Amino acid sequence: MNVTLKAATQEVTVQAANGWIMLPLLIVFLLADIAVLIWSAKNASQAEQSDPTLIVLSALGLVIGIVLLTGFFTLQPNEARVLVLFGKYKGTVRESGFHWANPFYSNGPQGKQLTRNKISLRARTLNAEKVKVNDKRGNPIEIGAVVVWRVENTAQAMFDVDNYQNYVPTQSESALRHLASLYSYDDGEENEITLRGNVEDVSQALRAELQERLARAGVVVDEARLTHLAYAPEIAQAMLRRQQAEAVIAARQKIVHGAVSMVDMALKELADKHVVQLDDERKAAMVSNLMVVLCGESEVHPVVNAGTLYT
User: Is residue 1 scored above 50 in pLDDT?
Assistant: First the structure.
């Protein structure tokens, strides 16, 4: 089945009229129109046969002036307005300040109110709630992340997705679930990236996947980091015991390795300095005693042998 992908909507930056210039012009226009309306009405009342054309035109001009007054809008720094005239995209105003534009540019819904299709370009933080998912080895884990994002292409954010503010958290959760299934929690093979052991690498992978998913909405991901990572409660105790066992084994291995090195050093020192001549049986006994002393967990109590190994 062939799937045709729709081309991304391209943003067009436009300049709106300066509001500080348009405001006095419209005020002068309205005052002049009101004066003409009053003058024409006064003349019509004094004349026996009057022409209502001037009155109608001045009244119409008054209505037009009031409508034109609704074209004023302001933009704060890092804020933009998308201009849509009768369903057609006309451009995006990005310059902050007091502006005037065609009053028939449509307004967009935001919550329960209609706004002038304003879009914030500031960086926003999404603190994604922790989700339960299976890692690469099938272990249930809980994982959460924080995402710093901002709108880069206002046209894509407005027209290519239904609601970009809902699109971001939905895609973030989906990307987080997919990422967790690609890596093991912490029981990876040699040189394998794990969620717990390679947080930076995993965060970079999460950011790359989020950027790919959110590019359709004109969104740029500045940062993505894991904020929560733990085994699911149902296996947390079992995994804790496993980690403790692994820690004990690793400690024992280090202790044994150190004890063997110390025994070997003791035997070499005794032989090199000719302190005592030991046959194989005496060496075996010394090695056994030293290993017990060095590897034992309880306190050692020395035993004085008054005889020999052969009596």
Answer: no
